[in-house]
Design goal:
The structure is a homodimer. Chain A is built from 4 helices and 14 strands. Chain A is mainly beta. Chain A has helices spanning 57-65, 78-84, 94-98, 128-134, and strands at 2-4, 20-26, 29-35, 38-43, 46-51, 67-72, 102-103, 112-113, 118-125, 136-147, 151-152, 155-156, 166-170, 173-182. In chain A, a hairpin with a 2-residue loop joins strand 11 and strand 12. At the A-B interface, strand 4, strand 5, helix 2, helix 4 and strand 12 of A face strand 4, strand 5, helix 2, helix 4 and strand 12 of B. Strand 14 of chain A pairs antiparallel with strand 14 (173-182) of chain B.
Chain lengths: 188, 188
């Protein structure tokens, strides 16, 4: 079940550095691309930073709409993530190509991606110098949801291997997020 | 053994979103802090983006020296990483507090951290608006090394559990990077 994530907890959805799917829309067109270069930028209001290549079709949709979503995929859809990272939405329907299904966001116009385990809806903070020189987009998170089998009460649960988030090394090589462990800082 | 990582491969050291230790130095003072909000920004020349809180002692050292290193810690030193994230270098010798040992970098003045599995030496790209509004530092990677038990020929090897990199959830809770797997994009 998809549950609302309180905005001050939204950074926890990407604090551990997972792969993201960036979804976008403008004027009836939609797209989805894989992005590993994304991170939290602030807690409350939550902000994120993400790198979107100048040649990506997603880039046009984000620059015209001023919105995007970060969808956090899991082990079960790793092959779809790779496909979403391996063709341009300029040339084909990327959702169909990657075998991914969109569903409506709560606040923004861009669709969200079914089968992911968390979703952050974002509005771009205009920083033209970052965008032009570094392909770097800063954005405020305006809504967040999670699959309650994977994230509940502000914490990730990785009991189900198929629902674990992903980390990308390049060349089609991923890892899942490993098992959680606690340290108390006293064993130095 | 520490080996040189070719600069065009340096982004691979942090592409999967691991926790970092940010080390810095200026005028005889050194410091080290934990940072999860770091990501690659460009391939070649390699660049990185990292968030450094305005109240961090590290921030003063980076702003005056224009340099820092991203050290990539592993499972074996997770408790030290937590300690490095839980006190201010203003008040104590953070290396000693965290049980971490510095060693000289190759290019920059900031020290590197023993026991980590990769090291990126960075020079700040002056972006005052990002630094002041968002605590966001962009930097060019000018040298990179790795422990060849963990990263070799441009690829991470996670055979040894103790040498696996870390992902941070907050509240003292980490995960190691899980086992790698390949997908071919055809099983959608």
């Amino acid at each position: 079940m998809r549950i609302t994530v309180d905005l001050p907890h939204a950074y926890r959805l990407i604090n551990h550095g997972p792969v993201t799917l960036v979804s976008s829309a403008h004027g009836g067109a939609t797209n989805v691309m894989a992005a590993s270069w994304a991170m939290p930028l602030d807690f409350d209001p939550p902000k994120v930073a993400v790198v979107i290549d100048a040649n990506a079709y997603t880039r046009q949709l984000i620059e015209t709409s001023g919105e995007f979503a970060l969808n956090i995929p899991c082990r079960a859809i790793a092959a779809n993530v790779l496909k979403a990272g391996s063709a341009s939405g300029k040339d084909l329907d990327k959702f169909a190509h990657a075998g991914l299904t969109p569903f409506p966001a709560r606040v923004i116009g861009a669709p969200l991606v079914e089968g992911c385990v968390a979703w952050l809806e974002c509005r771009v903070l205009p920083r033209p110098d970052n965008q032009q020189r570094h392909d770097l987009f800063l954005a405020e998170v305006v809504a967040a949801q999670a699959d309650d089998r994977a994230f509940r009460d502000g914490r990730w649960l990785f009991d189900d291997e198929n629902l674990r988030t992903l980390h990308y090394f390049g060349g089609g090589s991923f890892a899942v997020t490993g098992s959680q462990f606690e340290v108390n800082g006293d064993n130095t």
